[in-house]
Amino acid sequence: GQQVMQIPQYQHVQEGEDFTTYCNSSTTLSNIQWYKQRPGGHPVFLIQLVKSGEVKKQKRLTFQFGEAKKNSSLHITATQTTDVGTYFCAGPKAPGYIPTFGRGTSLIVHP
Amino acid sequence: GAGVSQTPSNKVTEKGKYVELRCDPISGHTALYWYRQSLGQGPEFLIYFQGTGAADDSGLPNDRFFAVRPEGSVSTLKIQRTERGDSAVYLCASSPEGNSGYTFGSGTRLTVV
């Protein structure tokens, strides 16, 4: 079945460095969602991308949906300790739109 | 309510026992989802309700798992004859429609001993 794969699984950065996580699908996605889960918390919806090549920004976060709608990325500029957590992408489970989550990328920010 | 409420927050049960987990979605949200999450993994889909009916239950691992949403709001996930492998955090999410961003509850941590 359709799966979304995320890399890397873990990323350690020094505070102030940039961070990027990548999400790849073997099939074309109608949309991609991104969530953040703080340690001990629950997933919190960040954004949904729908259009081919779409780029959206939320302060220091930049989300991109690939032209072929098979990949997506989340880039954080100048990380802060508040960015610590696991970032998940979720693509719709064919044939409907129930989000199927990747394994996530855990971001660790060292002060 | 203001958010998705799940009760209990923690549940410890003995192997073989029956448990019920409750989800109270955001008022007016017609779509409700159950997921479970094991340590180090992403949420795994279990079942999706649109209104009162289970629109997709393909994620339920076996017939020990069952969920209801009789009045289109509160949902209960029921697990019979619990096994140690059922231990996980069970998450509920709701959305206004089926294809928009989802609001998750804080989850129920189920431990089967």
Explain what you see.
The complex is a heterodimer of chains A (111) and B (113). Chain A has a single domain (4-110), classed as Immunoglobulins (Immunoglobulin-like, Sandwich). Chain A contains no helices and eleven strands. Chain A has strands at 4-7, 10-14, 19-25, 32-37, 44-49, 55-58, 61-65, 71-76, 85-93, 98-101, 105-110. In chain A, a hairpin with a 4-residue loop joins strand 9 (85-93) and strand 10 (98-101). The radius of gyration of chain A is 13 Å and the shape is globular. Chain A starts with a strand and ends with a strand. Chain B contains no helices and eleven strands. Chain B has strands at residues 5-7, 10-13, 19-24, 31-37, 44-50, 53-56, 65-68, 75-79, 88-95, 103-104, 108-112. The mean pLDDT of chain B is 94. Chain A binds chain B through residues 31, 33, 41-45, 47-48, 88, 90, 92-93, 96-104, and chain B through 33, 35, 40-45, 48, 55-56, 91, 93, 98-107.
Question: What characteristics describe this protein?
Answer:
heterodimer; A: 111 residues; mainly beta; Immunoglobulin-like; 6-stranded mixed beta sheet; 5-stranded antiparallel beta sheet; 11 strands; globular; B: 113 residues; 7-stranded mixed beta sheet; 4-stranded antiparallel beta sheet; 0% helix
